[in-house]
Amino acid sequence: MVINTPAKINFGLWIGEKQEDGYHTLSTIFIPITLYDTISLMLCETPGIQFECSSPNVPHNETNLCWKAARLFQDEAGLHQGICITLEKNIPAGAGLGGGSSDAAAVLTGMNRLFSYPLTGTQLRTLAVQLGADVPFFLNPVMSTAGGIGEILKPVSFPWQCPILLVIPAVKISTKTAYAELDRSRTEKLISIDYEMELAKLTSLADARSIIKNDFEPVLFSLYPELTEIKNHLYEHGSLYASLSGSGSAMYGMFKDEITAKNALQSLKNTYWTAVVYPL
User: Which helix H or strand E contains 243, and what residues bound it?
Assistant: First the structure.
């Protein structure tokens, strides 16, 4: 079984209080995009899990989310049949694009099909939450608002099917560090944001500049000025809206047309990892 697993960007990201389980509440809009990893699943004679990946930048052992997903599935379904997982990695790791979460979700849904659906949708969602806050979204990656810790999902329409330029600098941002810095920097009472309501306020994509915010930006932009430079560059080259995705380091700009987006790409491609993608 071969599965293409999409990346995502966050259109707005509000981060709430840290919970007892270590997760933060949040509000965001997940937009799946046309950038994919590829997961191949195959039954194998050897019991347990075998895992291979094309990239040296991700763990190749039981700490990998794909491996963890397969183990959780085997335990929940009571399976002893061995599984071989091959991951062709195209989504940059650790960039806020959800590649690892998407891969893990694909392992859950793929194994469920491969073994003739021993688990219900509810069971899969329970396993997904155990793996990470973004994983439930990727079980059915359609554009959605997300609440709770990311597991409360509601499909939403996005009126601008515009090209998106991804720009990823070499800087690596630890998600754990990003959350710790955000918690440390806060001094005011948190006011929750409903991004579905915020989306309804927009009469144009350019309106989002003053309405749709990512809470990580003020903290991370002060630590990594390069991110500010990229955002400014995207606006200077015609982006209608630009933002950090998740806790970074990926930046993205939304453009009115592909020509403008590709012209902006040309101005950045010699310095950063870049790609023009579209919402799914």
Answer: strand 241-244
Query: Helix (H, G, I), strand (E, B), or coil: what is residue 38?
Result: strand
Find out whether the peptide bond into 243 is cis, omega within 30 degrees of 0.
Answer: no
Task: Please write the tens of the pLDDT for every residue from 173-201.
Answer: 888 888 888 988 887 777 788 888 888 88
CATH code matching the domain that covers 2-155, chosen among 3.90.550.10, 1.10.10.60, 2.40.50.140, 3.30.230.10: 3.30.230.10
Q: pTM to 2 decimals?
A: 0.92
3-state secondary structure of 12: strand
Q: What pLDDT score was predicted for residue 190?
A: 79
For the chain, domain boundaries:
2-155, 164-277
Closest CA to 198 of 243, 145, 251: 145
Q: In this structure, which topology does domain 164-277 adopt according to CATH?
A: Alpha-Beta Plaits (3.30.70)
Residue type, 222: S
Active site residues: 8, 134
Gap between the Cα atoms of 200 and 192, Å rounded: 16
CA distances from 251 to 10, 228, 233, 239, 262 (A): 10, 10, 11, 12, 15
